[in-house]
Here is the input.
Amino acid sequence: MRLGLLLSAMPGPARSLHDERDGRIVGTMMRRFFRWFFESRETGVITIAQAPNFFLWIVIVAGALIWAWHPPDQVGVALKVIFSAALFVWAGDEILRGVNPWRRCLGVAVLCYRLWTLPR
Here is the structure.
């Protein structure tokens, strides 16, 4: 499999990952990085997405109800609180127990986004 990424940080003209001069070295480094970043520490397989856990199901259901139903005042506020709380718990769970660095970074990104948008 050939990756068509360009490494602009390298000195000189931009080189693809499979440049004749250093393609094997860069390709090996990138493969090792991707494997380290996406490989599950539990099963050893590449894991980008997983089946939703309990808290993510709560987020999905609450979000779908908010989107489709446009609930009245108190019910709407309750659903938004449930949505936010479950999303915080899910993000914290991914940060602490994610199966690989990708899942942990995903938890950090969701947590930062939610904290950024919370006051609004």
In short: The longest strand covers residues 6-7.
